[in-house]
Amino acid sequence: MFNEILHKIKDSHYKNLPFVAYRKPNSDELSALFMESNALRYTEDFSENGFVFSPFDANEKTILFPLKEGVFLTEHLNLEKSVHLQKSLSEEVLDKDFHISLVKKTIEKITTSNLEKIVISRKEALPLVDFNFLKTFIELLKNYKNAFVYVWFHPEIGLWLGASPETLLNIKNRKFETMSLAGTQVYQNTNTVTWGKKELEEQQLVTDFIKNQLQSISSALKIDKTKTVKAGNLLHLKTNVKGELNNNASLASLIRGLHPTPAVCGLPRNLAKDFILENENYHRSFYTGFLGELNFKNQQSSLFVNLRCMQISDTIASIYIGGGITKESIPEKEFQETVSKAKTMKNVL
Q1: What pLDDT was estimated at residue 184?
Q2: Range of 284's domain?
Q3: On the chain, which terminus has fewer CB atoms closer than 10 Å, C or N?
Q4: Which residues have C-beta within 8 Å of that of residue 249, sequence separation ≥ 6?
């Protein structure tokens, strides 16, 4: 399987040393970076080489595991898919009334301002019994083949796991790929589905934003046709975007142009972000931030939006879920969408 990486994960966690292990979407290779010091490092301008973990709020610092200060390993994965992920934890949610109330407030804000979309999220705290984070990581690897699956640890920050369906950015030799991902419905054993006006408009908002953000710093921009894609028990609308970074543009400018996307924040971005920070009743931290390889071999970077994730603290798992709100949103339906999204993490606990 991947015995060397598993052994080193156990050893590093026991010694309180930072590490990350991850598998890219549709890959059979597990990668891991083990730090030899528990110093907390940050990227200055995204020109470094290493693994980054960035929060939702771009004003907060991005954590860097420098490649030169750690041990990087890869191993081949050979995992059989689990078949026992049908039972879910209780769907009783304590903050349902608050979330629905906040969605109503958000819709009112959108209809009385020039805001077009705001992404509203919530956090669930779940008690853990006999929790083994390595077993949970393996279950994520087995069951979410087309996601970016990871386990990340730093003693000063904590332990995070996730299975994200969304790529923020892939770039090599200044040629990049990104995506807009929006709209959600529960998978019903078919990818041939009908999308409503709200979901289609939401997807187009994200695509238009990416196009507008990248036009001034890139050339040969190509926007593919929108497709329906499956992520765990959910379906989303996805549009791939490709281009080439201009000579006078930097990787940092590309990242800052994209993050946070309307898929996790809203439009206009700064107004939506201000509303989120003022009205969500918790701190998102690294949820809806991004993580991944920064300037690895051949200066290649692969970054993913931190969705479908959880933070482990002592005997509590904090699960983060959200959804895009527009003037067409129905509060109860938006809440149920977060319940569906929560199952990705709940099913492996």
Answers
A1: 86
A2: 3-346
A3: N
A4: 217, 218
Say which CATH number the domain at 305 has.
3.60.120.10
Nearest-angstrom CA–CA distance, 40 and 2? 27
DSSP string, 115-176: --EEEEEEEEEEE-SS--HHHHHHHHHHH-TTSEEEEEEETTTEEEEEEE--EEEEEETTEE
Question: CA–CA separation, 290 vs 60, rounded Å?
Answer: 12
CB 168 within 8 A of CB 259: yes
Paired tokens of 167 = 């790529």
Give the Cα separation of 299 and 262 in Å (integer): 27
Q: What is the pLDDT of residues 211-256, one digit of tens each?
A: 999 999 998 899 999 999 988 788 999 999 999 999 999 999 999 9
User: pLDDT value at position 95?
Assistant: 81
**Positions in the chain whose pLDDT score sits under 50:** 85-91
Encoded tokens for 108: 């009112």
* Cis, peptide link before residue 55, omega less than 30° from 0: no
Phi, psi of 283 (to 5 degrees): -95, 120
C-alpha 133/C-alpha 110 separation (Å) is: 40
Strand-pair partners of 310: 161, 319
Could you tell me the pTM of the whole model? 0.92
